[in-house]
Amino acid sequence: MWRRRLLLQALGRLPALAARGRPLGPGGGRAYAPPAERKRFYQNVSISQGEGGFEINLDHRKLKTPQAKLFTVPSEALAIAVATEWDSQKDTIKFYTMHLTTLCNTALDNPTQRNKVQLIRAAVKFLETDTVCYRVEEPAALAELQKKEWDPIVAWAEKRYNVAIGSSTSIMGPNIPASTRDTFISHLASYNMWALQGIEYVITQLKSLILSMGLIDRHITVEKAVLLSRLEEEYQIQRWGNVEWAHDYDLCELRARAAAGTLFVHLCSESSTVKHKLLQD
């Protein structure tokens, strides 16, 4: 049921509001930027198992990556999720809503040619500018809100990983101990290359390693993670109001991306095939 909800969020169905814009890749735009839309050219979507993993079939055509590689994913569950993205398209294929497909393309083609060590370093580097570690002193109401909402997730991360993180009101940010960085490096090293692509993608969306790990560890929901990542913006909206429709679109899109990245991490860590459809309750 948890995965079903993540998939629906990734598809932009929770809430039922169409997402706009193009997906940002790991590192803020390093993934492929597919064409915005294209007329649907297939009737049926299916998956099949090949020598290299699970493949996506659009009618009788094998799906390919932007570099013309065979689109092959490591788990059946991920293949079903990607196939669901393609099958959910109506008369027009809206590539910018297909976050799982984009993440798979990035993992398969690796356009920036980064290795596992580089991916881990990029993820851990976000600790230096982690959203929940930067605090304000004024206005007092916002400072209190940050303390109330962010302190618990920081405390959870410190206990979960047995590290010291802290927070700071200095523009230099908190002084993160080397031992804390080493612990996160060691933890992230337990993930495979595909999952690391997804982790960095989630971190990039939330601007926070701490929130991302809380989400991936299922300590917080997508809605909570997004709210915490936008806390100052939400505070300003509550105080001054928002631009009608624009705020809702931005919120929906961020939730969709965070959900897609989180689902991608879990499905890339699957060691066995599934016997029932991902969307089955």
From TrEMBL:
Its primary localisation, in coarse terms, equals mitochondrion
Membrane disposition: Peripheral membrane protein
A Pfam family this chain is assigned to? ATP12
Query: What domain of life is recorded for the organism?
Result: Eukaryota
- CC annotations in GO: mitochondrial inner membrane
Keyword terms of this UniProt record = Chaperone, Membrane, Mitochondrion, Mitochondrion inner membrane, Signal, Transit peptide
Subunit note: Interacts with ATP5F1B; involved in the assembly of the F1 component of the mitochondrial ATP synthase (ATPase). Interacts with FMC1.
The name on file for this protein is ATP synthase mitochondrial F1 complex assembly factor 2
**Gene from which the chain derives:** ATPAF2
